[in-house]
Amino acid sequence: MARSRISVSLPCAIEFQSNVPQTQTTVVVHRRLYPSLTDPNYLVLRARRLIFTDWIAGFPDSRLRILDVGGRHQPYRPLLNGRVAQYVSVDLLRTDFVDVIASGEALPFQAETFDLVIATQVFDCFRDPHQAAMQIHRVLKPGGRLLMSVAAVAPRFADVEQWRFMPTGIRSVLAAFSSVEISPEVYSLGGLCRTLNVALHSFAKFGVVRTTFSITICPALNLLGLGLEWLKLTDNDQFTPNYSVLARKA
């Protein structure tokens, strides 16, 4: 993708890399937003899309200035189509979608710059999640929102991960916000199906074994988890793999 340097008129007067995503989303984005039944993360990814869609529908009907922290892929950007005045992404890894190379613990923007901050699956990688939350709170306008997801009962997916989060811990990290809504992406029964799927996927390393697993056991566990969630047999969330969170600044 051709890239050129432009100056964006943000209050912090930073020079960004221009970055208009292609009309057709990347394979990674599509798989995260619309996961296949052959994906061991299907249950949480599907649920996160539905939860975020419901929350976004309740946002004010206006065009938003949005910051995506850890926005190297931006899978949830399509959910905001028609509501974006400006979309800025920060990450420590440069991709075609990243505008600013920066850490979420030291955001290079003036206070009260953005209407919405998105931070999905990045808080587990911060050295100091409380500092990252304070930085996000600082750059949000009054009434601004944080849309985030965090890992709870989940294996380690990458060596950079440092944390897992329970509801009380989430509220502690987001103590500066006036309201915090926490939603399990799946409850315990669905969570056990997802955990088993991820574990089996991890051990099915060889080509033919992984292929067989992906087209047999994986979709079967996903359908089982989906059915258990639909039946609403329990609201126990002790084994939920992930939480979606909506926080609001006063």
Explain how this protein is built.
With 250 residues, this protein is α/β, with parallel strands linked by helices. The protein has a single domain (5-186, 237-248), classed as Vaccinia Virus protein VP39 (Rossmann fold, 3-Layer(aba) Sandwich), CATH 3.40.50. Helices cover 32% and strands 22% of the residues. It has 7 helices and 9 strands; from the N terminus they run ββααββββαβαβαααβ. It has helices spanning 27-33, 42-57, 129-139, 167-173, 188-203, 207-215, 217-231; strands at residues 5-7, 15-17, 64-69, 84-91, 100-101, 114-120, 140-151, 179-184, 242-248. α3 links the parallel β6 and β7 (140-151). α5 packs antiparallel against α7 (217-231). It starts with a strand and ends with a strand.
Topology at a glance:
Layout (H helix, E strand, L loop, with lengths): L4 E3 L7 E3 L9 H7 L8 H16 L6 E6 L14 E8 L8 E2 L12 E7 L8 H11 E12 L15 H7 L5 E6 L3 H16 L3 H9 L1 H15 L10 E7 L2
Parallel strand pairs: 3-4, 3-6, 4-5, 6-7
Antiparallel strand pairs: 1-2, 7-9, 8-9
Could you give the order of strands across the largest sheet? Answer: 5-4-3-6-7-9-8
Taken together, the total number of domains comes to 1
Order of helices and strands: EEHHEEEEHEHEHHHE
Question: Low-confidence segments, ≥5 residues, pLDDT <50?
Answer: 1-25
Task: Give a summary of the structure in a few sentences.
The protein contains seven helices and nine strands.
Kindly list the characteristics that best describe this protein.
250 residues; alpha/beta; Rossmann fold; two-stranded antiparallel ribbon; 7 helices; disordered N terminus
